[in-house]
Amino acid sequence: MNESTNSNELSDQVAALRRQTFVLLLALIIVSGTLTVFLYRQASLTRRDIAAIKPQATQIIQAFSQNGPNIQNFVKQLAAFGATHPDFRPVLQKYGIPPAGTAAPVAAPKK
Fold first, then answer.
1. Which of 39, 72, 100, 109 supports an S-S bond with 80, CB 3.0-4.6 Å?
2. CA 91 to CA 98: how far, in whole Å?
3. pLDDT value at position 102?
């Protein structure tokens, strides 16, 4: 009698585990499908946003390319100004602009 009771309990437990596994697999499929739909929607919205922003970005890039030499000239002028005005050097260092080749004369240390 004890063996048949154990056998029935084991078969009931195996059946419960099979049902639980089936339910978990079904939940996994549903979650995976939902995630796939969500990611597809996000990708399509992102494509639409990129298509809308691309003309504006192209204009900005063209304007920067056209003004590039002017910007470089301005940076060179700032570096030259920093070379003759030591008080301005911290500003140049803050923005990573090296001072021009000629350094300002260094004051003699006080005795």
1. 100
2. 10
3. 46
